[in-house]
Amino acid sequence: MSERLITYKDALREAQASCLASDPEVYLIGLGVPGPTGIFGTTSGLAEEFGEDRVLDMPASEGGMTGVVLGTAVSGMRPVMVHMRVDFAVLSMETLVNQAAKWHYMYGGKMRAPLTVRMIIGRGWGQGPQHSQSLQAWFAHVPGLKVVMPATARDAKGMLIAAVEDDAPVIVIEHRWLYAIQGDVPEEHFTEPLDGAKVLREGKDVTLAGYSYMALECMRAAEMLEKVGINAEVIDLRTLTPVDGDTIAASIGKTGRFIAADTAHSDFGATAEVVSVAVERAFDSLRKAPVRVGLPYIPTPTTPALADLYYPRAVDIARAAVELCDSDAVIDDPPPETPWRDVPDPTFTGPY
Amino acid sequence: MATNIRRPDAETRRAMLRSMLRVRMVEEEIVERYGEQEMRCPTHITIGQEAPPVGVSAHLRQSDYVFSAHRSHGHYLAKNADLPAMIAELYGKATGCALGKGGSQHLVDLDAGFMGSAPILASTISVGVGVAWAAKRRGEDRVVVIYFGDGATEEGAFHEAINFAGVNRLPVVFVCENNLYSVHTPLEIRQPNRAIHHLATVHGMEGEGGDGNDVEDVWRIAGDAVERARADGGPSLIEFATYRWKEHCGPLEDVHLGYRDQAEFDSWVEKCPIVNYERRLTDEGVVDTAAVADMRTGIADEIEAAFSFAKESPFPEPDALARFVYPEPRAGAAE
């Protein structure tokens, strides 16, 4: 079968169109969802195609509206709520944490809350302390919420459809810098599992495991390492709930060396859990202590002069791997394509 | 209410015209230069919305405090905050008002009483109320002005904050700049058909709405509210009808997106707060063409100097990255 290459962004749009078409209980809601820029293009045209009563705008009331949406979910509807930036989703924490996560459990399984919440994270162009956070670990800490981070176009479509069809509340965290990345995506309605990691690249010397955009950076790091004779295995971690210990342990069994990379702060973040699982499951196979690559324990600075120092990149993962492998290979920093490394590609001219 | 504050004197009128011109010209320079890609941060342009901050600030002292949100440049400048430090902040420089760490969305100038700005809707409103509460508890003679848009009044935090201000009779002036859109979403699908300032009554305070394109209407309404707060008469919620001329975030126009039409846009540009005020003051003999030209020249020189300062300033050194995550010991505290 021939490849069907589409962008991550278009895969998200297809997933929502497919869910709207296949189930009359599905609706989309969020500030700007039916608007002219359509959540960075991921909802463009859906209001015209499926009607304004199924693709809805809303007041700037993230807290209260999450409760409203939860009410429709426990009534049997399948809402998809969208936050253009995860920083605004913080305003809905009470409802997500105290209510949506627990209604199925605390009422003895009598109610279900099939709610999907899309939250967009990102980096670059001076988005700074309140527009660029990666808060996935907050949600994953709450039993009852499922938290997934698709890294490929195929997963973007398949996991979003699976989230909508799942009877639990699912938080889908999308990185803005993945939106223009292409992948092979089936045209039909299909799901990808909400649990389980995927091995993206087989290797024998070191395991690079990443979430979301950092899974892509792990692939880039593996290419850098190949040039200096280090054969890296790359795992797309995909989901936080639960961390896939089987895949991680099997990989460490081959390589004995483990690096976990995330878009968030390492401290108290997803990689803290990932490394715990790695140590619990594969202690005897580990030849050296695992290494984490993530943000320093510092809020995001706005100025590009500091943001360039703040964000880890593929070269940082590769250099960590070289050290872990006791190699004296030198990994050169690829020359920057733009004055600052704060754009996903040279065509981006700001602002977000 | 004292009748002598119902109409500004000639000096105040000239100052308000100049202040609006200054905000406009600063914004136009940012728009002009944003494409150079040296100001690398989300930037919300306030062109079209100059009258509310200027008419309000005409009543404020340096010791009064102002809080703002994402579209903050006008609030900052009208409160006499530092222009070169603002431009340097947009350029991400070490000389910026937040040392480059905040960018356009997080301006601050404590000396001028500009206490901060943040882009999460309604998030500075309750903080401003807390600052007013502290001022009242300490017996300080201080008025706190909190600016926000129509969207912020849909957040729970707004209602919780103004309720607390109302029950404690705090010296706050809540200023809603209603520009009809939350990003691209029109007001009529977000709120019922009632004036936002009517929410004042149910929260136990005075409320009034005015023409956000008429700086003297703003001046009159804000004067009443500021005087009330200063006289321990409690908070007010005032609302001004205004309009954003540029896109929500960034330097471009956006009528082509289709969420607002050209006729609507043109009707608001027709009501330009600066062009109309200049004409009015000229007709009434308060300014003449030469005086306005002098204003423009002086402002242009100041802006040129601010941009030169920003461009020539250094970026923060790498060791600045980890500074200020937690406070360092205060000077002398170890003794």
Structure in words:
The complex is a heterodimer of chains A (352) and B (335). Chain A has 352 residues and is of the alpha/beta class. Chain A folds into 2 domains: 5-184, Rossmann fold (3-Layer(aba) Sandwich); 198-324, Rossmann fold, CATH 3.40.50.920. In chain A, 38% of the residues lie in helices and 17% in strands. Chain A contains 15 helices and 13 strands. In chain A, helix 11 links the parallel strand 10 (206-210) and strand 11 (232-236). Chain A is globular and about 60 Å long. By secondary structure, chain B is of the alpha/beta class. Chain B contains 11 helices and 8 strands. Chain B has helices spanning 10-34, 51-57, 73-78, 83-90, 123-137, 156-167, 199-202, 215-230, 262-270, 273-283, 289-312, and strands spanning 65-68, 114-117, 144-149, 172-178, 181-182, 185-186, 206-211, 236-241. A 6-stranded parallel sheet of chain B has the order 2-1-3-4-8-7, sandwiched between helices. Chain B has a two-stranded antiparallel sheet with strand order 5-6. The longest helix of chain B is centred in the N-terminal third of the chain and has 25 residues, at 10-34. The model of chain B has no long low-confidence stretch (mean pLDDT 96). The interface between A and B is large, with 43 and 46 residues.
Give the number of helices of chain A.
Answer: 15
* Percent of residues in helices of chain B: 40-55%
What share of residues are in beta strands of chain A?
15-25%
Determine the most extensive contact between two protein chains.
A-B, 43 and 46 residues
Looking across the biggest beta sheet of chain B, what order are the strands in? 2-1-3-4-8-7
Total number of domains of chain A: 2
Cα-to-Cα separation, first versus last residue of chain B: 53 Å
By oligomeric state, this entry counts as heterodimer
Average pLDDT confidence of chain A is 97
User: What is the C-alpha radius of gyration of chain A, as a whole number of Å?
Assistant: 20 Å
